[in-house]
């Protein structure tokens, strides 16, 4: 089975503070992962290591068969799509761009287009619009879009380079219920296109049926990892979120309720 991500004994320290500790984790072909944990649990730092923007203090990392320290990271990043609510900081730059141009810019990993665009690029952008069910946005300017539409366009941009790995860092942040479900439906379509997804969220109910595996983080350590049916237990989630939680499943999606208002000690 092909390895997508492999971390061995990975730790990260910042100014003598432990951010990640002894992370042993691998993501394999045909697996779709969600990372869950409270703020400060190490989720973003883990993503920064996967994308090569942060180097671990110790341990070995390989992504898509590339061992860190012996690989060209800018070239590797071209194989990784990334969508995050943090990309909203580019709104001022993107605001007057058309939807298609923003999607096409993903081929060049740039904000804006500074290279030659081919007819094949335009054709690919249209295919992505169809995949994400946003054909009606063709020709629209970014500044006129709703928050949910903007997030879908950025998702399309991440797909333009045919990534082998798509990282979604809280992509539904700030979206209303309907828009969130529409975005989750788009993610379902992407997974069905044989793309590997690594999805960070705070919300258990966003774990769609296509997600196969879960990584639970607390204080920079792994609480549990593995197939979602085995990992998403009352005990594991209560420990991760420091609340007495109960898991129930509906339409192949997990939901949680709080058993009492007293945090666990």
Automatic annotation (TrEMBL):
<dbReference type="Pfam" id="PF00005">
    <property type="entry name" value="ABC_tran"/>
</dbReference>
<dbReference type="InterPro" id="IPR015856">
    <property type="entry name" value="ABC_transpr_CbiO/EcfA_su"/>
</dbReference>
<dbReference type="InterPro" id="IPR003593">
    <property type="entry name" value="AAA+_ATPase"/>
</dbReference>
<dbReference type="InterPro" id="IPR003439">
    <property type="entry name" value="ABC_transporter-like_ATP-bd"/>
</dbReference>
<dbReference type="InterPro" id="IPR027417">
    <property type="entry name" value="P-loop_NTPase"/>
</dbReference>
<dbReference type="GO" id="GO:0005524">
    <property type="term" value="F:ATP binding"/>
</dbReference>
<keyword id="KW-0813">Transport</keyword>
<dbReference type="InterPro" id="IPR050153">
    <property type="entry name" value="Metal_Ion_Import_ABC"/>
</dbReference>
<keyword id="KW-0067">ATP-binding</keyword>
<dbReference type="InterPro" id="IPR017871">
    <property type="entry name" value="ABC_transporter-like_CS"/>
</dbReference>
<feature type="domain" description="ABC transporter">
    <location>
        <begin position="5"/>
        <end position="244"/>
    </location>
</feature>
<protein>
    <submittedName>
        <fullName>Iron complex transport system ATP-binding protein</fullName>
    </submittedName>
</protein>
<keyword id="KW-0547">Nucleotide-binding</keyword>
């Amino acid at each position: 089975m092909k390895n997508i991500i492999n971390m061995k004994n990975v730790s990260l320290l910042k100014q003598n503070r432990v951010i990640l500790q002894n992370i042993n984790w691998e993501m394999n072909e045909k697996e779709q992962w969600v990372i869950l944990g409270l703020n400060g649990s190490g989720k973003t730092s883990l993503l920064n290591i996967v994308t090569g923007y942060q180097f671990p203090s110790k341990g070995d990392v390989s992504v898509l068969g590339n061992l860190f320290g012996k690989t060209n990271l800018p070239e590797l990043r071209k194989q990784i799509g990334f969508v995050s609510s943090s990309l909203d900081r580019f709104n001022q730059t993107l605001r007057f761009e058309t939807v298609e141009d923003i999607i096409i810019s993903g081929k060049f990993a740039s904000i804006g287009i500074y290279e030659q665009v081919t007819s094949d690029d335009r054709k690919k952008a249209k295919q992505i619009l169809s995949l994400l069910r946003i054909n009606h946005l063709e020709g629209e300017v970014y500044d006129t879009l709703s928050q949910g539409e903007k997030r879908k366009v950025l998702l399309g941009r991440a797909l333009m380079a045919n990534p082998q790995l798509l990282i979604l860092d809280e992509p539904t942040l700030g979206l209303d219920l309907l828009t969130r479900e529409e975005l989750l439906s788009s993610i379902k379509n992407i997974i069905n296109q044989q793309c590997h997804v690594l999805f960070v969220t705070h919300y258990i109910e966003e774990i769609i049926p296509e997600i196969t595996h879960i990584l639970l983080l607390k204080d920079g350590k792994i609480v549990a990892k593995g197939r979602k049916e085995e990992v998403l237990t009352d005990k594991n989630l209560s420990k991760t979120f420091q609340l007495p939680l109960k898991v129930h499943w509906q339409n192949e999606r997990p939901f949680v309720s709080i058993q009492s208002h007293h945090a666990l000690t």
